[in-house]
């Protein structure tokens, strides 16, 4: 735990998602809230997207962080702010508007299962 999901629109042509995941994972680790081996990250390129009811020219990046409940609102707000700043730093040169959003959410600890299998 935690899980970090990065979504980015296809019109961010030169977006380096693997590098972005490394940067965002480091921010997560540097927060002191998680062990390095606990952070799981993935990226999804969105080939079909809209902003509003028909604008496909606006690009966006969205990060969702799901973590087990138990952290304070202040910790989650600080983490979200750090991720937002790091997310901005991952942007390539763009032609047009880009929206950046971050959502840090709690998962119910009682409903989460994890097992680490030996390799």
Structure overview:
- The chain is α/β, with parallel strands linked by helices and 119 residues long.
- The protein has a single domain (3-111), classed as Macrophage Migration Inhibitory Factor (2-Layer Sandwich), CATH 3.30.429.
- The chain contains two helices and four strands; from the N terminus they run E-H-E-E-H-E.
- The chain has helices spanning 17-30, 73-89, and strands at residues 3-9, 40-46, 59-68, 98-107.
- The chain has a four-stranded mixed sheet, covered by helices on one side.
- Strand 1, helix 1 and strand 2 (40-46) form a beta-alpha-beta unit.
- It starts with a strand and ends in a 12-residue tail after the last strand.
What keyword list fits this structure?
119 residues; alpha/beta; Macrophage Migration Inhibitory Factor; four-stranded mixed β-sheet; 4 strands; 29% strand; globular
Q: Supply the CATH class.
A: Alpha Beta
Residue stretches low in confidence (pLDDT < 50, at least 5 long) are none
Order of helices and strands: EHEEHE
Structural class from helices and strands? alpha/beta
Number of domains: 1
Strand order in space, largest sheet: 2-1-3-4
- Rg from alpha-carbon coordinates: 15 Å
Strand content: 25-35%
Largest sheet: 4 strands, mixed
CATH superfamily: Macrophage Migration Inhibitory Factor
CATH architecture: 2-Layer Sandwich
Number of strands: 4
What is the arithmetic mean of pLDDT? 94
- What fold name goes in the CATH topology slot? Macrophage Migration Inhibitory Factor
Number of helices: 2
Shape: globular
**First and last CA, distance:** 19 Å
Helix content: 25-40%
